[in-house]
Structure formats: C-alpha cells, structure tokens
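Just wondering, does anyone understand what follows?

——
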Amino acid sequence: AFHGQPQWCPSPDAEKKFACCAHGMAVFPHWHRLLTVQGENSLKAHGLSFGLPYWDWTLPITSLPAVVTEAEYTDPETQAVKPNPLYQGSVDGHTTTRSVRDSLFEQPAFGKMTRLA
C-alpha cells in the first residue's frame, strides 16, 4: 500500500473496504525501517554510493520541514520551478495529501508522554 492506496482491507472483495496503510499503526516503526533499508539496498545495487537522508524523530520539532510542506521547488540544475513530489502525489488517480495532526508537535515535560504514545 502507498499512503492509503489501494483500499483493499480487510480484503479486495469486501463490501466495505478501507486503506491498508501502516502509518498510524503499532507496527509502523518496524515496517518503515525495513522499507527504508530495502529501498536503500535496491538503490545501492544500481550505483547509489551514499546513504539516504533520514528524519531524526528523536529531536523535538515544531513543524514539518519545508521539503514536504511546499507545493513546488526550484530545480537547482535548470532553475525550473517544478511540482514537489514530497508534497503530494497521485496514486491510482487519487491525489495524496498531508493532514498533520497538531498532536505531532507536542513537547511534553521530561518523563511525560504525548497523546500519540
């Protein structure tokens, strides 16, 4: 599944279906790490000579980085303004969007947990 598509859960022939997306599920950290490693290994098999950058989720944040919140970017080689594929995408004719919850940015006191925990 890619960010909620296709809607095949609980099964492709179910009368009422929903997205089979690992985001927001308890298995997400393990699933995402495996996906990242497999993607990086595949790229390395085709000549990638460096590691993929990652988002250090252990550091406090107050907003998402611009690389995922801006609809367009300027290509550094051509100076052309292009749609940002990290902002939104199209899967099976559906446009993906970001709907970030404010609770993502909570800064609890030391020893306390956010509502996400």
User: Anything to note?
Assistant: The radius of gyration is 17 Å. Residues 22 and 31 are 7 Å apart (CA to CA). Helices lie at 28-45, 66-69. The mean pLDDT is 78.
